[in-house]
Amino acid sequence: MCEMARIDIAVTLLLLLASSGAAAQVKGDFEFRVGVSKRFSSGVSSPVLQPGFGPSVDVGGHVALLPLVRLGIYGGYEWSPQSPYAARHLIRGALQFRLFSPFPERPWRMWLAVGFGPVIAFGPADAAVAAHTGRFFELPVGVGVARQVWGKWHVTGELLARPAFGHGGALFEIRGAGTDALGLGLAIGMQHEW
């Protein structure tokens, strides 16, 4: 291994392990978020429209692996309208890694997030189709920011892109409805560190 590669690895490890004394004591967090999501489908044909904007809610938690690295799990619900059919209900879960930036200093924090998880989608019966279900997987990738507001409580904001793959089920066999290719989400919430 060349000398420059060893220096790069050493600097990277130092940045991951570096943090203030207070941040090093954080063992994990619990978070509740609400937001808005938008899905983009491939294979949509007339008279079906692209899915519209809908509300979402997520609950999750993380444990600290290193001072600037956390591993977590979360679950969420999303309401996704797609005319002319009834709105779809999506239930999702994922494992998520968060890599925190050592800058800026508290009370602000920023992170990059990447995850993997399944989604189950339900479409209720309406005048056009019978009730139907489907499933797929997502690779959520995002950026987040938090601001400490009181003690160990933080206000958070996160922007996520959710590429989707591995679709199956009757929901995606409906004529013209297509398959979810990408989901975008913007959420705000409250987080408590412990």
Short recap of the structure:
This protein has helices at residues 3-17, 21-24, and strands spanning 28-42, 53-66, 69-82, 85-100, 108-123, 132-138, 141-150, 153-168, 179-193. It has 194 residues and is mainly beta.
What can you tell me about this protein's structure?
The chain is mainly β. It has one domain: Porin. It is 10% helix and 63% strand. It is built from two helices and nine strands; from the N terminus they run ααβββββββββ. Strands 1, 2, 3, 4, 5, 6, 7, 8 and 9 form a nine-stranded antiparallel β-sheet that branches. A hairpin with a 2-residue loop joins β2 and β3. The protein starts with a helix and ends with a strand. 31% of the residues are buried. About 3% of the residues have low confidence.
What is the secondary structure topology, with strand pairs?
Layout: H1 3-17, H2 21-24, E1 28-42, E2 53-66, E3 69-82, E4 85-100, E5 108-123, E6 132-138, E7 141-150, E8 153-168, E9 179-193
SS class: mainly beta
What is the fold-level CATH name, i.e. the topology? Porin
Shape summary: elongated
In total, the number of strands is 9
CATH architecture: Beta Barrel
Key structural traits:
nine-stranded antiparallel β-sheet, Porin
